[in-house]
């Protein structure tokens, strides 16, 4: 007996019935059916790639519709719609070289079709959408990526190094755009190696070390970690060893006349030691986010 390992969509049973051919059939279980659908999808996609006609595309869509009937994919339409509420900026913006920025924007519109602020963003970022992307500088490619990420004012934005390749003025505009969207209720996830940028823009910080999240804190609590940067210029000689014995202090830089310390916790003990010395200058300030990160999490 000839074995037909085909999907019902190929109408093999109907053809055999019409020809009065006797046969046995067995219904595939869910796992087997999914496996056959995958094979069929690969087959149809290959045929469409070789002959990109409407008929071949219709065959691809038909298999995809069959996938959507499986229980594990019953929420796929919801997932697809949710994706429209997500803006994404990759660490390296990739674009079609022969398309202009406007063509990229128009393509995004064809997929989403929502009210958008692309024109406003292009104006603010001083971006010319008529230029082909192959002729754009890295900074202007970054601007295009930001426009595509925020043009539909998404509920969630995922940004990888959003100010990469931008000058300080443009960076400030990006910060303003991010703040505006968060004020409107958006959630923005931003990765950055620029801790000064994180300190300026973010309200909550996750610190990743060696591929693992080692801390998640609000910006306020991170800043409240008591750490000060003490800079002293002495009027005479001093002994660096006096400061090394103090708990919570770390010498950042020492020269014959100058000393810079990071001090964790209270600074009263440092001040008591300093009071015994003649000083030309003394500066005490809160440590930056970068200093706090290096002190608490880099070890």
Automatic annotation (TrEMBL):
Domain ABC transporter intervals: 16-235
Keywords for this protein: ATP-binding, Nucleotide-binding, Transport
Pfam family for this entry, one: AAA_21
Source taxon at top rank: Bacteria
Annotated transmembrane regions: none
Entry-linked InterPro entries: ABC_transporter-like_ATP-bd, ABC_transporter-like_CS, ABC_Transporter_VariousFunc, ATPase_AAA_core, MSMEG_1276-like_NTP-PPase_dom, P-loop_NTPase
GO MF, any single term: ATP binding
Name of the protein in question: ABC transporter domain-containing protein
Source organism: Candidatus Doudnabacteria bacterium CG10_big_fil_rev_8_21_14_0_10_41_10
């Amino acid at each position: 007996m000839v074995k037909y390992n085909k999907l019902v969509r190929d109408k093999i049973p109907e053809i055999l019935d019409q020809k009065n051919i006797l046969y046995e059939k067995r219904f595939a279980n869910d796992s087997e059916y999914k496996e056959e659908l995958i094979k069929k999808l690969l087959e149809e996609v290959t045929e469409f790639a070789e002959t990109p006609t409407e008929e071949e595309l219709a065959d691809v869509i038909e298999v995809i519709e069959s996938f959507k009937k499986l229980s594990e994919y019953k929420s796929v339409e919801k997932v697809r719609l949710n994706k429209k509420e997500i803006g994404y900026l990759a660490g390296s913006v990739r674009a079609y070289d022969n398309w202009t920025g406007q063509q990229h924007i128009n393509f995004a519109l064809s997929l989403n079709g929502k009210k958008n602020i692309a024109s406003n963003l292009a104006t603010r970022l001083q971006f010319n959408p008529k230029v082909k992307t192959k002729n754009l500088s890295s900074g202007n490619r970054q601007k295009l990526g930001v426009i595509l990420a925020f043009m539909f004012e998404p509920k969630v934005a995922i940004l990888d190094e959003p100010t990469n390749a931008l000058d300080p003025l443009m960076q400030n505009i990006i910060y303003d755009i991010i703040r505006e969207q968060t004020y409107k209720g958006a959630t923005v996830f931003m990765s950055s190696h620029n801790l000064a940028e994180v300190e300026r823009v973010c309200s909550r910080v996750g610190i990743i070390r060696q591929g693992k999240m080692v801390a998640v804190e609000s910006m306020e609590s991170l800043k409240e970690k008591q750490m000060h940067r003490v800079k002293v210029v002495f009027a005479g000689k001093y002994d660096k060893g006096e400061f090394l014995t103090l708990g919570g202090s770390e010498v950042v830089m020492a020269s014959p006349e100058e000393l810079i310390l990071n001090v964790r916790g209270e600074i009263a003990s440092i001040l008591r030691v300093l009071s015994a010395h003649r000083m030309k200058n003394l500066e005490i300030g809160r440590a930056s986010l970068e200093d706090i990160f290096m002190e608490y999490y880099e070890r």
